[in-house]
Amino acid sequence: xETTAKTKLDEQNKQLIKATVPILQKQGTAITKRxxxxxxxxHPELNHLFNQTNQRRGDQPxxxxxxxxxxxxxxxxxxKIVPHVRQxxxxxxxxxxxxxxxxxxxxxxxxxxxxxxGDVASDEIIAAWEKxxxxxxxxxxxxxQQLYEEAEAQTGGWTGFRNFKVIQxxxxxxxxxxxxxxxxxxxxxxxxxxxxxxxxxxxxxxxPYTHLRQYSLSTSPNKDHYRISVKREAGDAKTPNGxxxxxxxxxxxxxxxxxxTAPAGDFFLNRNDNRPIVLLSGGVGITPMMSMLETVIHTQxxxxxxxxxxxxxxxxxxFKDRVNTISKQHTNVSSYTLYSQPENEHLCDVNGYIxxxxxxxxxPTTNASFYFCGPKGFMQTTLLIxxxxxxxDADIHYEVFGPAADMSAS
Length: 410
What we know:
Layout: H1 11-19, H2 21-42, H3 52-57, H4 59-73, H5 82-95, H6 102-117, H7 123-153, E1 162-171, E2 176-183, E3 197-202, E4 211-216, E5 226-231, H8 243-251, E6 257-260, E7 277-282, H9 286-299, E8 305-311, H10 320-329, E9 333-339, E10 350-351, H11 356-362, E11 369-373, H12 376-388, E12 396-399
Parallel strand pairs: 7-8, 7-11, 8-9, 9-10, 11-12
Antiparallel strand pairs: 1-2, 1-6, 2-5, 3-4
Helix pairs in contact: 1-7, 2-4, 2-6, 5-7, 6-7
């Protein structure tokens, strides 16, 4: 299968693609699950590109199904999905995805459609989808090429992986540890936009494949090092322990070397906005918020900041002392904490969860820029509250850890 910018769809093919939208809504996840089975069994070398935990949970197939559905629904107006494509393209650039991998994806996606849909996927429909995939793939390839060039062109920039040495390892809470990373070659590193992430390659002994994980940078730019703050992911009855997070906590120490790709991501602080900013986080979602907070106090010292963090308890609260220090030293910063299971209810502002009434009571204004990140439930609740507060959609910014998820309330 070729991917070429010259691929065009006539009206008949567009109608065939649109006609599959109801089918994709119903069978999309089954198709993408089958796709991953087929592709990874025939190309096991691609296993390193995919988070195996997300595969087991079904998050990755659902995310792919949502992307395929969005493309089908907008096949005659692909510009409508450009923001979604850009978000994924950042992840692909960070993961080092290459143009030659797209035909492989296309081949097995079409085979999966045929397998799952049977006679419904006629030769005519498959042919139309082959052309459509060529258009969509080229959209990704072109955008990713631009991102590769931008990553390499900036001062200290690079493409592919670059070795970084752990210069400090600091425990931030019972479950979160920070790793301070300097380039092994001692050369310059590029700045980044507060809120962006890096991809880390973990080479774990006795694991058949390397593992790639994306972690938000948790400090401000303009330093000679990067910092990531990683939550140790404990397993449960359905999910095993996080391979990479436990490897980092248990086996990576000061002096260890980790390969990284250059910072990426389209979720970041708008430093041209001087209105109040509200930073809301749950759990390890505090990491990009810390980068934004540290940046604002240095570059916009008069900008009003409301910093809100939700955690299980004080023992699970990372950067607690740092945020308290900032709020005491900077009169423009107000900080609040919510603990769902506090050891002492006097150690937090709210014993429980974020709510409409409480958030409304602490906000100086809704004419502000809102950024939030955390577990899916926290984010769904926060998004719902912001909508109820009539915050403008253009002022709502959030980051979903892992594959893009449906943020509608379940």
